[in-house]
Amino acid sequence: MESTIATLPSQTVSEKLDFRRILPIFVIVLVDLLGLTIIIPLMPLYATAFGAAPLLIGLLGASYPVMQFIGAPFLGRLSDRVGRKPVLLVSQMGTFIGFLILGFANSLWLLFLSRILDGLSGANISTAQAAISDSTTEKTRTQGLGLIGAAFGIGFILGPIIAFLSLSASGNNYHVPAFVAAGFSLISILLTWFWFEETLPQELRHAQAKKPPFTIRAMLEALRHPAVGFLLLLMFAQQIAFGGFEQLLALFTLNRLGLNASGNAILFVFVGLLVVAVQGGLIGRWSRKYGERKLILAGLAALAIGLTLTALTPRQPMPSYSKARLEQELRASGTFRTHENPTTQNLKIELPDDTHKGWLGLGWLLVAMVPAAIGGGILQPSINSLITQKARKDEVGGLLGISAAFLSGANAVAPLIGGVIFQALGSTAPFLAGGMLMAVLLAIAIARIRP
Known about the structure:
- This protein is mostly helical and 451 residues long.
- The protein folds into two domains: 20-196, MFS general substrate transporter like domains (Growth Hormone, Chain: A), CATH 1.20.1250; 217-335 and 347-451, MFS general substrate transporter like domains (Growth Hormone, Chain: A).
- It is 77% helix and 0% strand.
- The protein has helices spanning 2-14, 19-39, 43-49, 54-82, 84-104, 108-120, 124-134, 141-169, 175-194, 202-208, 216-223, 229-256, 261-290, 292-311, 323-333, 360-390, 396-425, 429-448.
- Helix 8 runs antiparallel to helix 13 (261-290) and helix 13 (261-290) crosses helix 16.
- The longest helix has 31 residues, at 360-390.
- The two termini are 38 Å apart.
């Protein structure tokens, strides 16, 4: 009894998150994410301006997660050996150079080089998560890691707004947001250099160096895990649908509604607000009230409805739309010059005509995006939470790492599959396919995920 009472003060202290230690990591991640989220709404249209077809745009979208899937595990292991700060700085510098290349790009291959370089150095977030793990206890780790999710949410709201403002100020010059993103990346480097303090003690680096490397075999064994194998497959499949939605949304709105980069930036703000509302406050309340199983089923149903409704969006540009003006904007950012006069013959995405303009198309899409964003916001944290409940304590870390790997793999595959379907069957087909996939998974999940 005496020993229990004696330990109560230390337990009380350990249950409180030390915000002073976490704040630098949170700010650095947020500033770093602003650079990424500034260019997300821009990339498909940037590639379109260089005459890229949907399949090639899908390859461009896949290049970053593929390179991140290759580079992040190695940089993560390196951070266990040399510390978090050096790896964080190196990865941030790679991101900074990638944004500069994007800003100076005058051909499609430079867009690919930019995303490949950024992906290979893309250990920013994973290293920051490791630093938070170093700085928290078991009691406070979930809360600390939750701040990374909050930084993502804030970044996905502010980034598109900054993209919209920079495009408006520059007359829709697609190069300018890339330089703005590089500026935020440079700020994150300076914050890491001067403010961030190393979180991994020297004595722990030698012990961490003995960890076995990440292997494909570990992923296959995890899929055979009786309790969580299906959940890992579900994580992969739902991200193919939702990741394809995110990657192809700009091309879809260009084709159906004639939205330019500024218009798409505002749409991404809308999606970001919905996801932040779900992941920032509602999901905790819903989880306590309904449990993870019901949340997963509801997320699959909502995403199926949202993707199907998105696919059925009427092809109607807004009243202010001008096809000639949009073509001119795309010409200004690409290389549509065969002789002395600009031409749009290389434009592979069909733009809507100036006839039959109105608000129905945009209004329909905004309604459709509500269940799509809510479903996408629910699924990932709910699936991971259920994985932690069904796995042994000594398995949790490894299984969550494999879950993250499946997520990255899905982010790489989604734009490739979506790009092929988009090019072969039209702009609505990828979203219809995603909605059907979610409906099938819902039926399977009802039987496989037991209360």
